[in-house]
């Protein structure tokens, strides 16, 4: 409601301003001798200087932005292929930046230098083959090199050899959480289908498949350092995107199909926390949090907990109201710690058995409820039959 009022006020203000300028114009009739629509030398000078000023603004703002926000870019990659991705990204940035600085400079400089003047006449020529060749061939060659390098990087990153020793993990996306399924001792994920979702089997794993028997379902992702992890993504509802910023990996999760991505983590969570840039970043965040906490405590609130770094799996497709909070903690362990963590987990088959066992005694101890439910069911069935009969009669 408030925003509607603000919009109405702004519109009315704009109308008032427009009317005022019209009145102002009317009061000026006959006052000025120069009411020509052709730009004078003075107009051209003013436009030329404004354009030059805009060029200065672009350059100064670019430098300011780099200095002020440059440190927000992702730092050291935590996966093997991350270096390749960063390299490609950096080359692209340097190229774009150089070309942008030169072409914008030339564009505005020429506009300023050749601004309109009553003694100056524009040179006319139909075309220049030499110029056309220069500005077509150079960008084509540069872009072709960049695309070839990109394809080389893509193939290197995306290709998983069938015989390669990898850890198979499924990432299951749904509004608004992630769940992971480990393939277990056989390292083969059992079949799954959303139609089989029931009770604790929230991923719809086909329990009649022998490969499903040792599958493990967890809500926190642990992966070992130095080992290739092959993720297979599924989505239950809408398009999501599995995004691991620190590992430079992202892949869409599409309902009805399985997508994949593989990478080798190169720093354990503990090691990454110790990197100098991360120590500095966390100290900075905690300094801000401490300052905020003082304010909160003054207002009678509770102080904020100090922040510790953790790798995250985020969703990078706007998939609904709580999209911003769709994340899962990722822990990179040493291979030994990873094995230990995984061995402590129960399999999905065990979870389903335990859930069934937990339900049984409840059924035994409540016979009264059981018979009451039966009576309700019978009444419901009778009501349905009567309804159907009435509907039939109505149709006739
Ligand atoms: Cu999502």
TrEMBL record:
Residue intervals of the Cytochrome oxidase subunit II transmembrane region profile domain: 66-161
Entries under PROSITE patterns matching the protein: COX2_CUA (PS50857), COX2_TM (PS50999)
Biological processes annotated in GO? ATP synthesis coupled electron transport
Keyword Kinase assigned: no
Q: Where in the cell is it found?
A: Membrane
The Gene Ontology CC terms held by the record are:
membrane
Positions of transmembrane segments: 47-67, 88-110, 133-152
Q: What is its main location?
A: membrane
Record bears the keyword Ribosomal protein: no
Topological relation to the membrane, as annotated: Multi-pass membrane protein
- Major enzyme class: translocase
Q: Where is the Cytochrome oxidase subunit II copper A binding domain?
A: 164-344
GO terms for molecular function, please?
copper ion binding; cytochrome-c oxidase activity
Q: Which UniProt keywords apply?
A: Electron transport, Membrane, Respiratory chain, Translocase, Transmembrane, Transmembrane helix, Transport
Q: What is its EC number?
A: 7.1.1.9
What family does the database annotate? Belongs to the cytochrome c oxidase subunit 2 family.
Report what the protein is called. cytochrome-c oxidase
């Amino acid at each position: 409601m408030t925003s509607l009022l603000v919009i109405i006020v702004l519109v009315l203000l704009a109308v008032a301003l427009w009317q005022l300028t019209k009145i102002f114009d009317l009061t000026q009739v006959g006052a000025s001798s120069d009411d020509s629509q052709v730009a004078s030398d003075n107009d051209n000078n003013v436009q030329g200087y404004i354009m030059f000023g805009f060029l200065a603004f672009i350059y100064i703002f670019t430098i300011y932005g780099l200095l002020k926000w440059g440190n927000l870019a992702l730092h050291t990659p935590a996966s093997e292929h991350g270096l390749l991705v960063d390299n490609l990204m950096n080359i692209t940035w340097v190229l774009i930046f150089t070309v942008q600085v030169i072409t914008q400079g030339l564009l505005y400089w020429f506009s300023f230098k050749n601004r309109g003047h009553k003694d100056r006449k524009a040179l006319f020529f139909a075309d220049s083959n030499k110029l056309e060749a220069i500005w077509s061939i150079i960008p084509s060659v540069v872009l072709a090199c960049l695309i070839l390098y990109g394809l080389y990087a893509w193939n290197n990153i995306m290709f998983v050899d069938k015989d390669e020793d990898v850890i198979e993990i499924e990432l299951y996306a749904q509004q608004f959480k992630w769940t992971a399924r480990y393939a277990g001792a056989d390292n083969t994920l059992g079949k799954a289908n959303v139609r089989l979702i029931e009770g604790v089997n929230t991923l719809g794993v086909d329990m009649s498949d022998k490969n499903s028997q040792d599958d493990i379902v967890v809500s926190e992702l642990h992966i070992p350092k130095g080992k290739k992890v092959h993720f297979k993504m599924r989505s239950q509802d809408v398009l999501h995107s599995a995004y691991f910023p620190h590992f430079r990996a992202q892949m869409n999760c599409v309902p009805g199909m399985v997508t994949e991505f593989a990478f080798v983590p190169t720093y354990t969570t503990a090691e990454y926390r110790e990197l100098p840039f991360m120590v500095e970043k966390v100290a900075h965040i905690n300094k801000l949090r401490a300052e905020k906490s003082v304010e909160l405590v003054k207002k009678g609130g509770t102080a904020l907990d100090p922040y510790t770094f953790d790798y995250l799996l985020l969703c990078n497709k706007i998939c609904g109201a709580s999209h911003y909070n769709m994340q899962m903690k990722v822990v990179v362990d040493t291979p030994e710690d990873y094995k230990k963590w995984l061995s402590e987990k129960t399999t999905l088959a065990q979870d389903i058995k335990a859930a069934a066992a937990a339900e049984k005694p409840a059924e035994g101890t409540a016979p009264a409820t059981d018979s009451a439910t039966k009576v309700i069911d019978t009444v419901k069935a009778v009501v349905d039959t009567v309804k159907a009969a009435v509907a039939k009669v109505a149709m006739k």
